[in-house]
Amino acid sequence: MPTVIEDIPKELQPAADAALAWVNKERNASYKLTGLVDPDPNWQPEDGEATELGLVLCENDMCSREQVRIQKHGDGFQIAGVAAEEALIPHHLDPPEGVRTPWIDEQLAKHKFIVLVFYRGFW
Known about the structure:
Elements: E1 4-5, H1 13-27, E2 32-37, E3 50-59, E4 62-73, E5 76-81, H2 97-110
Antiparallel strand pairs: 1-2, 2-3, 3-4, 4-5
């Protein structure tokens, strides 16, 4: 079972921010990074070094996981998408708890009631 960490280590923050910017540009989206899946805790971003990052991204009420390959290149990073088996990276994810509660509060402020449906792991 993959491990999702919501507190991104400071060593990985610049790489994670670069990956988020790349995904948002590629998808013409405004995702927020809410976690990393199984990050390599020993990866030290040095010129030419590469690793894969599993990103948990949320936009409005939709969350997804993206797998990217990130390589340190000078002062920045080169990023590319990684093809992965569908079973390893579900297209949609239940949002992390820190994202779900504000969304529910926002909807309740706009409506008298809301109905949440939980179906096959999606909400």
